[in-house]
Design a protein that fits this description.
The complex is a heterodimer of chains A (113) and B (112). In chain A, the strands form three sheets. In chain A, strands 2, 5, 6, 7, 10, 11 and 12 form a seven-stranded mixed beta sheet that branches. In chain A, strands 3-9-8 form a three-stranded antiparallel beta sheet, with no helix packed on it. Chain A has a two-stranded antiparallel sheet with strand order 1-4. Chain A is built from no helices and twelve strands. By secondary structure, chain A is mainly beta. Chain A is globular, with a radius of gyration of 13 Å. In chain B, a hairpin with a 5-residue loop joins strand 5 and strand 6. Classes of the chains: A mainly beta (113), B mainly beta (112). At the A-B interface, strand 6 and strand 11 of A face strand 5, strand 6 and strand 11 of B.
Chain lengths: 113, 112
């Protein structure tokens, strides 16, 4: 069965810290995505990647960067965490093509104090 | 740009009631449409999808029909159960962007 694993379920960080959120998929999927989920706003796309070492900005990339050195791993980096980045972060992967369904991890609840 | 609008929640129903969650979309090109479900404490999972006009997606008793003339993809179930309590997201994807765009989500609570 498809599995997307996010390294932390809950994370508490201080303002200004550099934060790494890790995501690993075991399905050999081409595409990987990072979303944030906020009440009343649904899911908003931060960054995505269609191949190793490739990245594209989503709808809200400001304050974030990503890294994809290996096909199975996609990392989200908060260069200098701020309180408005407190959110639920969801990683997802898909096989290929825009019709492919996304497979999600269980999310990381990040609190920035 | 492309967008998805869902009905406001929360929706509260009694067990065995009929469910409709409205979803309308705006898109250039010919989108594929999806419903995802998020159970408490979990990530999202695909519930059903439709890739062209008049297609009907179905799964676990849920159904949705791709209506191009009304740009809608409403989710329905004839008899809900307590275990259906979750957040439901409508979404679209087009070959123009290759991205999945989500609605804001609708919380469903089913009471016994």
């Amino acid at each position: 069965d498809v599995k997307v694993t996010q390294s932390s379920r809950y994370l508490v960080k201080r303002t200004g810290e550099k934060v790494f959120l890790e995501c690993v998929q075991d399905m050999d999927h081409e595409n990987m995505f990072w979303y944030r989920q906020d009440p009343g706003l649904g899911l908003r796309l931060i960054y995505f990647s269609y191949d190793v070492k490739m990245k594209e900005k989503g709808d809200i990339p400001e304050g974030y960067s990503v890294s994809r050195e290996k096909k199975e791993r996609f990392s989200l980096i908060l260069e200098s965490a701020s309180t408005n980045q407190t959110s639920m972060y969801l990683c997802a992967s898909s096989l290929n093509g825009f019709n492919s369904p996304l497979h999600f991890g269980n999310g990381t609840r990040l609190t920035v104090t | 740009g492309d967008s998805v609008t869902q009905m406001e929640g929360p929706v509260t129903l009694s067990e065995e009631a009929f469910l409709t969650i409205n979803c309308t979309y705006t898109a250039t090109g010919y989108p594929s449409l999806f419903w995802y479900v998020q159970y408490p404490g979990e990530g999202l999972q695909l519930l059903l999808k439709a890739t062209k006009a008049d297609d009907k997606g179905s799964n676990k008793g849920f159904e949705a029909t791709y209506r191009k003339e009304t740009t809608s993809f409403h989710l329905e179930k004839g008899s809900v159960q307590v275990s259906d309590s979750a957040v439901y997201f409508c979404a679209l994807a087009t070959s123009n962007t290759g991205k999945l765009i989500f609605g804001q989500g609708t919380t469903l609570q089913v009471k016994p």
